[in-house]
Fold this protein.
Amino acid sequence: MGVRIGFIGTGGISVSHLINLAQIPDAEVVALSDLTAERAKQAQESTNKRLAERGGDGWSPIEAAHYDDYRAMLRKEKLDAVYICLPPFAHGEPEETAIEAGVAMMVEKPLALDLGLAARLHERIQERGLIAASGYQLRYIQGLQVAKERLAGRTIGMVVVMRFGSTPGTPWYHIQAKSGGQLIEMATHEMDLARLLAGDVKSVYAEADTLINNKNNPEYDIFDVNCMTLRFENGAVGTFSNNFISGHGVPSEGRGVHVIAEGLTVSYTHGGPIRLITSSGTEEIPPEGSPMAVEDRAFVEAVKTGNPALLKSTYESGIYTLATTLAGDLSAREHRPVFVKDLLREKAPALVK
């Protein structure tokens, strides 16, 4: 019998997951919920249409019940897991309801805008012994494990991170209280990858502003430019730059994570190979399919077997990445260095290492 899955939220990211799940024999998507049942139905139709256009075998069409109330879905359906694919401001009660129902969760990033809320949810997850993943798909990139092994034992000197682009068209994204801004909502992927390769961040000093995108949109109150200096727990220093003013064009180098260590540079640009650069030359480990597809297979297998060790990105790990991006945002607003552990001590003391 397959893993019975429901969805809370059926926006664009959910369709990407649904396409993957339709190609996993052990995954059975049985229910979709959104603000209206029609939106849930549209996500199903979009998924099946895209799969049909792709052609080939190895997939089954999504045939799910549609709900306008996730609470009703969780009451009526016998689910093993839920995907929670919601805007940042909407987290909290959906997770509480899923925890109460005793189902595993895949929670898309960021886990919340409030670190204390994420910490309380984590505590409930732990109490119930539930499998819970966070949606940091870059951790599933082919070659990262090799990169980590090569970095082990070397002194890391510098980390350079960039994420340049344009603001998504979704209206709520322009509003800080709803999206959290680019660093917290989008560039969180690059922050998570930097943490994976170089370790936890100790402190952040940021300067950020809104200089261009608010000129014709008075509601636009998120930062559209941000530059940060990072100090990692292992002593490495880093720079992290992200912007939403590059819609006119972004070089490939404008989205990536680069770790410069003693005798080795690990370099990743979006969609490209992992590059391991030494004085002897460059070794490339090419991407092998979609990391999100690998993530979805790992989550389904973890739920099926009851083995959370199969997850490369747990809910707890997602909290540390959230804390780091929140530290960066706070630093820019208060014009001072912020220590990540200070935020954790205040909002999530049980997670202070």
Notes: Residues 315-334 form the longest helix (20 residues). The longest strand covers residues 156-164.
